[in-house]
């Protein structure tokens, strides 16, 4: 990872590069690496803090910290993105996560052709994540779309690709997940 940005304060033991991997409405994702092992590459999501202060705690900025809290509480599943470390620093909260090599949106845009077994495998893995979030965590993702279905084709599993559901920025806890969600959240094009 070239062009490394200044290492953030401990306990965040990752360095963020200037190479942007993607961006969305609430932040951007950059290539990063471990401060201890420079060969351990990660993705670092920089989620902008919507407050005027330079730093905030979870109690001061619960809206910003909610994604981190969701990921800490619910993402202990092979098909959901987990946080390796997180820190609020200056104008943003930074999350270090596993580096996934692609996403479904990118693969579709570049013209990738999936076989029926590959499609079935991706859907199965995605549904495993959704069932875990709903049944174990009482969580509604509210923004499932191709760019939030992350793929790593270097995985050594039956499907030949690791499938992970990411971006919990608009996720919502609801103890009764059988009730229909009536508030709009997420990306309107996929609603």
Which features does this protein show?
191 residues, alpha+beta, 5-stranded antiparallel sheet, 3 helices
Give a structural overview.
With 191 residues, the chain is of the alpha+beta class. The protein is 21% helix and 28% strand. It has helices at residues 62-74, 104-109, 116-137, and strands spanning 14-23, 27-34, 41-48, 83-89, 92-98, 102-103, 139-140, 149-152, 162-165, 172-173. The strands form three sheets. Strands 1-2-3-5-4 form a five-stranded antiparallel sheet, covered by helices on one side. The chain has a three-stranded antiparallel sheet with strand order 6-8-9. A two-stranded antiparallel sheet has the order 7-10. A hairpin with a 3-residue loop joins strand 1 and strand 2 (27-34). The longest helix is centred in the middle third of the chain and has 22 residues, at 116-137. The protein starts with 13 loop residues before the first strand and ends in an 18-residue tail after the last strand. The relative contact order is 0.15.
């Amino acid at each position: 990872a070239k062009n490394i940005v200044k290492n953030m304060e401990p306990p965040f033991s990752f360095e963020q590069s200037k190479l942007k991997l993607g961006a969305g409405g609430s932040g951007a994702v950059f290539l990063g690496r471990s401060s201890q092992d420079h060969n351990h590459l990660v993705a670092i999501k920089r989620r902008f803090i919507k407050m005027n202060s330079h730093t905030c705690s979870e109690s001061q900025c619960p809206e910003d910290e909610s994604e981190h809290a969701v990921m800490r509480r619910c993402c202990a599943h092979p098909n959901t993105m987990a946080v390796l470390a997180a820190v609020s620093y200056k104008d943003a909260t930074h999350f270090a996560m596993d580096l996934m090599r692609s996403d479904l949106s990118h693969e579709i845009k570049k013209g990738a052709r999936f076989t029926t077994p590959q499609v079935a495998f991706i859907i199965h893995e995605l549904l495993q994540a959704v069932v875990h979030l709903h049944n174990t965590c009482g969580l509604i993702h509210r923004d499932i779309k191709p760019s939030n279905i992350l793929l790593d084709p270097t995985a050594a599993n039956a499907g030949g690709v690791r499938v992970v559901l990411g971006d919990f920025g608009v996720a919502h806890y609801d103890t009764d997940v059988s009730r229909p969600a009536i508030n709009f959240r997420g990306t309107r094009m996929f609603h």
